[in-house]
Write a structure and sequence with these properties.
There is one protein chain. This protein is of the alpha+beta class. The chain has helices at about 5-15, 40-50, 60-65, 70-75, 95-105, 160-170, 190-195, 200-205, 205-210, 240, 275-285, 300-305, 330-345, 355-365, 370-375, 390-410, 445-460, 475-500; strands spanning about 55, 85-90, 110-115, 135-140, 145-150, 155, 175, 210-220, 220-225, 250-255, 260, 265-270, 295-300, 320-330, 350-355, 380-390, 415-425, 430-440. A seven-stranded antiparallel sheet has the order 15-12-14-13-17-18-16, with helices on both faces. A five-stranded antiparallel sheet has the order 5-6-10-8-9. A hairpin with a 2-residue loop joins strand 8 (about 210-220) and strand 9 (about 220-225). Helix 2 (about 40-50) packs antiparallel against helix 5 (about 95-105) and helix 4 runs antiparallel to helix 17 (about 445-460). The longest helix is centred in the last third of the chain and has 23 residues, at about 475-500. It is globular. Bound molecules: flavin-adenine dinucleotide. Flavin-adenine dinucleotide (FAD) binds near residues 120, 123, 190 and 196. Flavin-adenine dinucleotide binds near residues 114, 115, 191 and 246.
Length: about 500
């Protein structure tokens, strides 16, 4: 039970009984497919970025194969390297990116922009059929940084990882304000390309709402989308690039609004009798303009599991639902917001549990998902999916998705735990984030696909979106097409055809 905390292990034994060892294959023994790029293409790529920045060794190719969805994890654990890129190319600046795209267009090479590699929707598994090869465009070297103090803007290289960006901003007294659970590994360009949303989105907003300007390299040339703070110049082209997952161009830098680094942070928890009671309270506060910086609510199942402590597992728990309310800012602002939110939550029927569990949540906020691989070693499958909808539909979607997952996994004959929390709130609605835990069947990919399909069908049937912040990738395309309809699909195809006529940009991703 390496790397699995004792409490989690006790819960697993309680829920699933005996487990079996299902170790991953040793990566050093894997057969990587032969490199299909022509010598001429390799020479041209090396001329642009230098030989050091074009790597074709097994480690580089394996480490840039796919992302971090359960399907991705299972495939790599079982030695499936069919999506391995032929080469990893590291551009040093925007000009390099433009030159690389020109070579790839000339040789019909698929280009997969690679930020932190944390996509969970198949965004890094490009289609290779019809191409002479696949290049992973690793953006690590795009790490420029500039601050406009007067406008409170920072222009960040797309390849900066979130911790690097946060450190640079902290040196100037600012914070990124964007803390997704993948914070430690994901990149600035990846956040923009997927419309990511962080755990403090109630206070700082989604990543796409922070973006004020972008540089994007397309096979047709470089687009600098650098508007005024607000503009009436027709449709906002930045919105076409945000969430485009590399299918319309390579984002090389992103200008975002930054906030002062908070002098104070407080995270507290609250208990509500039911998920419905807690949801009502969240809605009321959000609609009244009372937004804690972090605002989350676990349903009964997630609460029971989150509060389970070694030694007390299996004992009676007090039930109810746990809410996290976090406050960040100046001491004056934190104190004012804290007092107002506290009064409103009490009035809405909440019971304060103080700071202990809130601080515990904040400390472990990035830990949970990395258990997935360790759990797979023991035949336990853990995966998440998410959606968003308007408040008036939220309960219907919640019940429908939960029941759909349970029904789809029932034939596999093992216990299924489906937990949920509200992770991001808006005046008009909220997002629901589901975590599913069950014993892995012999074919874990087929098993998870059944659950994912059922959940996705339930989202669309209840009028919810197929994704609130994980993006489309390859995995969500069928439901994306249903969500935007035939006209929406034809608009996207027309843009793709115009901007990327040879179809080299992340083929198979995003466009239905
Ligand atoms: C453990 C875990 C927790 C997560 N938690 C969250 C969360 O809390 N909130 C959230 O929003 N997401 C979350 N995700 C999903 C993921 O982290 C986000 O989608 C993130 O924004 C991806 O950033 P990245 O740099 O890793 O991008 P990558 O995975 O490298 O790329 C994502 C997609 O964008 C494309 N792309 C990357 N960079 C560029 C670029 N510069 N230009 C054009 N296209 C580009 C890629 O080709 C790919 O299609 C989580 C994922 C994991 C594994």
């Amino acid at each position: 039970m390496t790397n699995i905390p004792a409490s989690a292990w006790q819960l697993i034994e309680l829920a699933f009984g005996e487990t079996r060892e299902t170790p991953a294959v040793d990566k050093s023994t894997l057969a990587v497919p032969p490199i299909s790029l022509t010598d001429a293409a390799m020479v041209s790529l090396r001329q642009i970025v230098g030989s050091d920045n074009v790597t074709t060794d097994n480690d580089s190719r394996i480490s840039h194969t796919r992302g971090k969805s359960t399907t991705d994890l299972i495939k790599i654990r079982t030695g499936d390297l069919t999506d391995a890129p032929d080469a990893v190319v590291r551009p040093r600046d925007t000009d390099d990116v433009a030159a690389i795209l020109a070579v790839c267009a000339e040789h019909t090479i698929a280009v997969v922009p690679y930020g932190g590699g944390t996509s969970v929707v198949g965004g890094l598994a490009a289609q290779s059929d019809g191409y002479t090869g696949v290049v992973a465009l690793d953006l690590t070297h795009l790490n420029t940084f500039a601050v406009d103090h007067e406008s409170r803007l920072a222009t960040l290289g797309a390849g900066l990882l979130a911790p690097q960006a946060e450190k640079l901003l902290n040196e100037h007294g600012y914070t990124l304000g964007h803390f997704p659970q993948s914070f430690e590994y994901a990149s600035i360009g990846g956040f923009a390309a997927t419309r990511s949303s962080g755990q403090a989105s109630s206070g700082y907003g989604r990543f796409d709402s922070m973006v004020k300007a972008l540089t994007v390299v397309t096979p047709m040339g470089v687009l600098r989308l650098d508007a005024a703070p607000a503009s009436a110049t027709g449709p906002d082209l930045r919105q076409l690039i945000l969430g485009s997952e590399g299918a319309f161009g390579i984002i090389t830098d992103v200008t975002i609004a930054v906030r002062p680094q908070p002098a104070q942070r407080i995270y507290e928890t609250w208990r509500f009798a039911t998920f419905a009671d807690g949801t009502r309270a969240m809605r009321k506060l959000t609609q009244d303009g009372l937004n804690p910086t972090v605002f989350r609510l676990s349903d009964e199942a997630e609460t029971a599991i989150n509060l389970a402590k070694p030694g007390s597992i299996g004992a009676d728990n007090p039930g109810g639902c746990l809410m996290v309310a976090g406050y960040e800012g100046t001491p004056e602002r934190v104190s004012r917001l804290h007092d107002d939110v506290t009064a409103a939550l009490e009035e809405s029927g909440g019971t304060s549990l103080g700071a202990e569990d809130g601080e515990h949540w904040a400390k472990g906020r990035y830990d949970g998902p990395y258990l997935r691989d360790a759990l797979l070693d023991h035949g336990i499958l853990t995966e998440t999916l998410e959606t968003a909808t308007f408040w008036s539909r939220l309960h219907t979607t919640y019940v429908a998705v939960k029941e759909a997952i349970e029904a789809a996994l029932a034939p596999y004959g093992n216990a299924v735990i489906v937990m949920c929390h509200i992770s991001h709130v808006y005046e008009s609605g909220a997002s629901l984030y589901f975590t599913v835990v069950t014993k892995q069947h012999e074919d874990g990919i087929e098993q998870w696909s059944a659950a994912k399909k059922a959940a996705s069908d339930a989202m669309i049937a209840t009028g919810a979106t197929i994704t609130h912040h994980h993006a489309i990738g390859r995995d969500h395309k069928p439901w994306f097409a249903q969500e935007i309809g035939d006209i929406g699909v034809s608009v996207l195809r027309a843009v793709k055809q115009r901007i990327d006529p040879t179809g080299i940009l992340n083929p198979g991703v995003l466009i239905p």
